[in-house]
Nickel transport protein (Enterovibrio nigricans DSM 22720), 97 residues
Amino acid sequence: MKTTIIALVMVFGASAAVAMPSHDLNLDVTPANGGAWVKLTQNGQPVSGASINDQFMTAENGRVFVYVDSEPAKSIEIIATTPDGDFATTRAFIPRQ
C-alpha cells in the first residue's frame, strides 16, 4: 500500500510539473523623462501585440513607450500580458520630467 501511494504521488507530481509551462517572459523597463521604454521578450524573441497596463501595446520589436502623467518622480507597476494570456510584472522608478 505504501509503495502504491508513493508511486501515485510521483505520477501526479510529474503531471503537475508538465502542466505548469515555463513562459520565459522577460520584461525590460528603461525609465525616461515622462515615462519608460518597455520591451517584452519570450524565449529571447520580441512579443508583438502584448498589452502593457491595459493602455499600451507592443510593436513588432516588442517595445512600447509608456507615458506617465505625473510631475513628481514616482515608482510605477508595469504589467505586460501576451496575446496568449501569459503575463509578467515589474516596478520601475520614473524620473521627474
